[in-house]
Give the backbone structure.
Amino acid sequence: MNEISITQILFVSTALFFIGMYGLFTRRNMITMLMSIEIILNSVNINFVAFNKYLYPGKLDGVFFAIFIITIAAAEAAMAIAIIINLYRSHHSIDVEDADEMKY
Amino acid sequence: MGPYYFVLFVPLLPLLSFCILGLFGRKYIKTMSGTLGVISICISALLSLYTAYQYFFIDGKVNGIYQHIIALKHTWLQFSPGVSIDMGILLDPISVMMIVIVSFISLMVHIFSLGYMKGEERFATYYAFLSLFTFSMLGLVLSSNIFQIYIFWELVGISSFLLIGFYFDKPSAVSASNKAFIVTRFADFGFLIGILILAFYSGTLDFGTLIQRLTSAGSSPFFEIHSATFLGVSMLTWGLGLVFIGGAGKSAMFPLHIWLPDAMEGPTPVSALIHAATMVVAGVFLVARLFPLFSIDLTVLQIVTWVGAFSALFAAVVACTQTDIKRILAFSTMSQIGFMMFSLGVSKYGGESGLGYTGSMFHLFTHAFFKSLLFLGAGAIIHFAHSNDIRELGGLRKLMPVTHMSFLIACLAIAGVPPFSGFFSKEDILMAAYQSNKLIYAIAVLTSALTAFYMFRLYYSVFWKRDIHPHDKTHEEGTVSMKLPLIILATCTAFAGFVPVSSWVTSDGVPLPSHIDAGFSVFPVLMALTGIGLATYLYKTQNSRPQLIKSAFGSLYRTAYRKFYIDELYLFVTRKIIFNGIGRPAAWFDKNIIDGFMNGLATTTAKISGLIKGLQSGKVQNYALYFFGGIIGLAVLFIYLMK
């Protein structure tokens, strides 16, 4: 079995990124959008870990960054869910299309 | 030279009375307001008499020459060293004479109005305006600075506007006040430019310095203003000519006279004030004030002469055909002011040849008395008979004996019959004209004969013509306050000619001996008597002769009756030419080009914003999309394009 090349890993990461992006733009449900953002973050994590392994094998900087991002993602999820709950209270919906008062 | 600080109170007292009456008159001191106005102007008149006494008899003269005394001077606006607008008081023979005339005539008008305006709704306002008018004119004659005179000049304009339009519920009064204001304001524009030209070349606004710099031959301002030309005419001529336009506007000289006959719409005592003491003599005063300058520019003097002489004759001809008492008097004022103007025009500076100047000021002095008397008499007649059309009046001599006598004296004075005041001043003017220009002299004599004719036409039509039965006497002639000014003014009119004005008021301050050349006077007096005789023949009794003459003259009579269609000409010029040729294109330009540009700007902005406002959709995913698009754009830019 061959060694997994960085190209393949980057391919997976890019695919994840665009899947997340697609979800972010097409889903109207805010929970789904939050999940899409998590996917985007994870694609970035993969990048960090992969580059760390292939470019600087003796160091741990990229891994640390991945852990940071996971932490921040957790915090962000908490924030986002709080926002979603508040939105639901005021609009009785978690559809982003319904929350478009802030316009021209 | 004694201190003349007290002269400050001469104009300030009417101002004070204006402030008090204007602020509190209508509510608190309605009944007292007439008395208050009379008291303030009375003190003012006494102070000016005292000033005149002090100036002419005690200390005005140094080495036989009357001095120019700056009694007070306060620099109000300093533009640059030497150029400042001052508020000052200048005392010289003409200003001292003028404050006496103005305050005295104004006092008479104030007293007369007590009876005339009794029961008027806006009695206090009327007195407030009268005080303002008096204040403006007193300030004007005392001005020591050419810009100060301009300020008071405009104040005179606005107060005459207020008084002419006093009955503002009458549309004719409103349009008359607008006409007076617009015409004089139009002329004042010329005055302002004239001031700027004179001030530019002399580098000062002060009268004394300005005259001294521009008249001393050899100095650089003198040289510059003579050598600089515009359209082939020297700047001195331009400046003085423009100043004269301002004076002609206020003094109702042809062709800016059109406001004067309509100014009759105000209360009659106001007409007395406008015609005798304030307002119309301002133009004559202005020319006299700047006379040393005018006298070195013969072109402008010629203009002054001919405008004055033409106005005098023109107005006299028109006055012969009018039927409204006040209009006849208005045109006679224009005619007499014309006399004063051309008298200044034919005069020279200094010595015996300055007789025209003296004559003009003398005539201003006597004219103030008899013209105010005529107008107050007309006021009494209108008050009594409730009509100002001479065709409806008649036979009033028995019903109004005091008015009749005083009116007769005034008519004799204006006709120039000795020994009444008008004779003496007119003789001076005729003599000056005779010495300088025979044609002007001929016009003047003809005009004074016409004057005698139309004044006695008025006199006979009002007081004789038909008999009135005793039972027609429905009410008294007028209150004491109306008769008293008539009697005082009649006395003044009868005797003012003996006042030796020529020994006080001369062009250079050196007294002239007063002289009457009996031989010279015969011809003008005969002409005046002929005029009176003709009027007696035609108008003393009701007959058909005037009608015959009227139809004999036909279209000429009609033309004169319609005031030579000058008003129609103005209307034609304004309505047809200015409105259509300038007004409408300007309005079109304003509406379409100026407004169009602004509107176009606004519409374009609105359209663009309508196009792009969709971007601001409020939808969070759109924003994310823009953000992402932006990042892609930047990535492309930095990675591929800016390698």
Q: What stands out?
A: The mean pLDDT of chain B is 82. The radius of gyration of chain B is 30 Å. Chain B has 25 helices and six strands. The longest strand of chain B covers residues 69-80.
